């Protein structure tokens, strides 16, 4: 059996997305792959932990929870040096090398991602001379790179997926030198616009190994199907599949999210809530929508209820 360590940072606000991510990883894995999910959190309720634990019915995995070690420092950085567009939890990924210091390699994933294919080859990447592997962020502006004084030739990377070489990190940053470098950087600027992402790009700089963007397909929903054909991991930046009261462009990665989300306890225990979100979002492709409704209906145990459900929500699509 091959064991893979995956780290997620979450709170009660993103557990729905995290559950879909875990389902997608399990569904796209082979029999000989075992997963240990390391979750760094300061606030996940016992009810939500139980829901996540239920996903073991799909395929067994290990689940470990950790409190952030440097939360006080992160909160100070957050309050003093960020525009506060994102929660303080975005800094928690910076604690990964400290919390999981005894591992060789770990894959960090943002919770608003799903795997649409198996990604075990990611773990086979040779990282002997690198601390992190990540996909380039092609949407970052030249003005931002100039502002943070980052050489464009080095590239700027999205921090939603990070393959971290823990052994290399421990050699490169003994003791607390990593945090000291961050403090030094933040002390010389007013605001860090993209908090942990800017920090990772600045501190690791030429120690980041570029990987194909198919492992971190950002803006996953708004792209055309032909642009996402090779996607292995979708990243729902900007627009989220569970947004309420707003039309979302529908591509194959939108439906991929729902394919996995309907297997979660969140969906099963509150089906009407999420189907209403689907209806509110609107859909120009009635055929795809009806196929999704058909998939959803199979979670309803009684035939009459199942048929009534399909009749109700398929009829709704006529008015979208």
UniProtKB/TrEMBL annotation:
The keyword Metal-binding applies. This is UDP-galactose-lipooligosaccharide galactosyltransferase. InterPro entries: Glyco_trans_8, Glycosyltrans_8_dom-fam, Nucleotide-diphossugar_trans. The keyword Aminoacyl-tRNA synthetase does not apply. Keywords: Glycosyltransferase, Metal-binding, Transferase. PANTHER family: GLYCOSYLTRANSFERASE 8 DOMAIN-CONTAINING PROTEIN, LIPOPOLYSACCHARIDE 1,3-GALACTOSYLTRANSFERASE. It comes from the Bacteria. GO terms for molecular function: glycosyltransferase activity; metal ion binding.
């Amino acid at each position: 059996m091959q064991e893979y360590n995956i780290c997620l940072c979450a709170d009660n606000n993103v557990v729905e997305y995290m559950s879909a991510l875990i389902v997608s990883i399990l569904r796209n894995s082979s029999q000989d792959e075992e997963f240990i999910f390391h979750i760094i959190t300061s606030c996940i309720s016992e009810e939500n932990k139980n829901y996540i634990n239920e996903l073991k019915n799909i395929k067994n995995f290990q689940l470990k929870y950790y409190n952030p070690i440097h939360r006080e420092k992160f909160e100070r950085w957050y309050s003093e040096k960020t525009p506060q567009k994102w929660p303080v939890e975005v800094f928690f990924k910076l604690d990964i090398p400290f919390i999981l210091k005894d591992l060789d390699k770990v894959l960090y994933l943002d919770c608003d991602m799903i795997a649409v294919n198996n990604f075990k080859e990611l773990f086979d990447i040779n990282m002997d001379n690198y601390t992190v592997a990540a996909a380039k962020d092609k949407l970052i502006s030249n003005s931002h790179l100039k502002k943070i004084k980052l050489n464009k030739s080095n590239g700027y990377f999205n921090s939603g997926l990070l393959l971290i070489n823990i052994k290399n990190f421990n050699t490169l940053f003994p003791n607390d030198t990593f945090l000291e470098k961050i403090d030094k950087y933040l002390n010389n600027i007013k605001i860090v616009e993209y908090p942990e992402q800017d920090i990772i790009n600045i501190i690791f700089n030429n120690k980041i190994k570029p990987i194909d963007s198919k492992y971190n397909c950002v803006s996953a929903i708004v792209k055309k199907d032909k642009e996402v054909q090779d996607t292995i991991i979708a990243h729902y930046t900007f627009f989220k599949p569970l947004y309420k009261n707003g039309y979302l462009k529908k591509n194959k990665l939108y439906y991929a999210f729902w394919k996995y989300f309907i297997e979660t306890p969140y969906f099963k225990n509150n089906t009407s809530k999420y189907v209403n979100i689907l209806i509110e979002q609107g859909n120009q492709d009635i055929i795809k929508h009806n196929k999704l409704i058909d998939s959803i209906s199979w979670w309803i145990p009684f035939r009459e209820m199942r048929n009534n459900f399909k009749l109700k929500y398929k009829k709704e699509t006529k008015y979208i």
